[in-house]
Amino acid sequence: MKKLNKDVYEKAMALHQWIMEQEVVQEYQKYEQQMSSHQELKDLEETLKQLQQKIVQAKHTQLDCRELIQDYEVKKKAFDQHPLVYNYLILKEEVNTLLHQIQDDINLELKKKS
């Protein structure tokens, strides 16, 4: 491995480690794990997917799908308002903001050096 490539690799690994150590990232991962093992949420998510498919199919065959849409909206609201989902989505946004900030900082430094 060339020295430059090795330096870049080591810096990338250090950045990765720093990101993974951030409290917001660790909290996000905790909620992600809790959601993936929460059977009620998994079942509700599957129900939402099935309702989406039924709505698309009903629209495609030009059937009235207002009841399906209402049912979907009620279940989607319940899903979104579940404490695990709510916190997960907030943390996901915070992690995305952090990653965008890092990306912007990297791009700014690269522009300075070119």
TrEMBL record:
Query: What Pfam family is a match for this entry?
Result: Com_YlbF
Name the coiled-coil region(s). Answer: 21-61
**Which UniProt keyword terms apply here?**
Coiled coil
Gene3D superfamilies xrefs: YheA/YmcA-like
Which InterPro entries does this one have? Answer: Com_YlbF, YheA/YmcA-like_dom_sf
Name of the protein described by the UniProt record: YlbF family regulator
State the species of origin: Massilimicrobiota timonensis
